[in-house]
Amino acid sequence: MKDKGNVRSSLIRLLWHRIDEDDLPGMSAQLAYYFLLSLFPLLIVIFSLMPYLPFHEQDVLGIISGFAPEDAMELIKKNISEIMSHRNSGLLSFGVIGTIWSSSNGIHAIMRAFNKAYNVEESRPFIVSRGMAILLTFGMILVFIVAIVLPVFGREIGLFLFSQFGYSSEFLKLWNTLSLAVSAIILFLIFTGLYWVAPNVKLRCRSAFPGAAFATVGWIISSLGLSYYVGNFGNYSVTYGSIGAIIVLMLWLYISAFIIILGGEINAFYSEEKRSNC
Q1: What are the residues whose beta carbons fall under 8 Å from the beta carbon of 269, sequence distance 6 or more?
Q2: pLDDT tens per residue across span 60-108
Q3: FRET pair for 30, CA 20 to 30 Å: which of 23, 54, 61, 257?
Q4: What UniProt keywords are attached to this protein's entry (predicted)?
Q5: Rounded to an integer, what distance in angstroms lies between the CA atom of residue 68 and that of residue 41?
Q6: Strand, helix or coil at 82?
Q7: Domain residue spans in the chain?
Q8: Quick one: which of 132, 123, 133, 115 has its CA closest to 271?
Q9: For residue 41, with 0-12 CB atoms within 10 Å meaning exposed, 13-18 middle and 19 or more buried, which class applies?
Q10: CA-CA distance, 271 to 90, in Å (whole number)?
Q11: How far is CA 140 from CA 177, 190, 258, in A?
Q12: Model confidence over 190-215: pLDDT tens digits?
């Protein structure tokens, strides 16, 4: 049995090798493209469900703005506003089928990236793999809705209880601190589901934990770091003009894709280690 120090050293060497061998920069660029194609259809579905849900558009945008760079957030708000202003009553009927199909492209691309990490071919029929991508997309929408509903109701319930004792301002400070932890837990659950179900490999749920933990921490840190850099140092509008916001959005999606794929590589490493030690 290898000690933990050797395992960590092997993990670092393998990841460095896999970054080049599996062309993670190129795969991340492809995944970022699919993320871009999936982002707005996914948001359209969520915004179309607004009349039936106990929250508002600002609640959804508030979740995203907590991590997205300001320029990217402005682009998202502008495009969603334009799309939703021209929506029709059929958007939630036949139109939603095409929207869900489009938004599942990102998940389908993740499945292919994870298969490459595990060095397996996609043997599942196209209907099955695409069906799984659509189901995972629905799962992400559901988790996203829960991620919005819980903070909204939690904040209101907390304010009501703490106001009875005159501690409303103290609660708000505590809530702002806890909101990041709540977001991290929800992200961890999303990543765990993806790493567990998406690869064409039979895995136990707990085998997805290392990659999910890495992706959660890595994505939060990189998103906040990019947001700080863009807001304070990187003036992309000067370099790229009117498309600066698009560049920032693509850069954010690219970094997110890289971290997600790297999390899959970490899980694949530990899966191989476990098999070799059996």
Answers
A1: 10, 11, 14, 15
A2: 777 777 777 887 888 888 877 776 676 555 555 555 666 677 778 888 8
A3: 61
A4: Cell membrane, Membrane, Transmembrane, Transmembrane helix
A5: 18
A6: helix
A7: 4-276
A8: 115
A9: buried
A10: 46
A11: 24, 7, 19
A12: 899 889 988 988 888 889 999 999 99
